[in-house]
Structures are given as structure tokens and as C-alpha cells.
Amino acid sequence: MTSDNRLDLEFAYTSHDDSCKDLYSPYYYCRRPRGHDGVHAAGFGSSRLRWDHRADHPPRMLS
Prior knowledge:
Layout (H helix, E strand, L loop, with lengths): L3 H10 L9 E3 L2 E2 L10 E3 L6 E3 L12
Antiparallel strand pairs: 1-2, 3-4
């Protein structure tokens, strides 16, 4: 599992254009860098979500 500290750094240094954008919901998409290993993640603190890729949500649905 990816630590919260590592995710904070990834989010801080990954531009919107370079982020994964795997869709969790209309309001949450993966903020990790494109091509990352492991789970997708979005949000901060107690609102942070982590999820595995879902087959019904193709990557890069948001552009």
C-alpha cells in the first residue's frame, strides 16, 4: 500500500495533465502520475480514497 506521505508528494508534484485520471466517481479521479504502480488514489486527509482499477471505468475517462 502507498503511504499517505508518498501520495501527498505525488499529488504536489504531478500536474493535472500528467495525472492518471482513472475515474472513481464524477468527483474523484486518480491524482497519481500516469503509469503508476499499485492502487489509484484521490483526495486528502480523511477524505482520501484508494481504489483498484474497475473494468467498467476505463483509464483516462476525464481528459
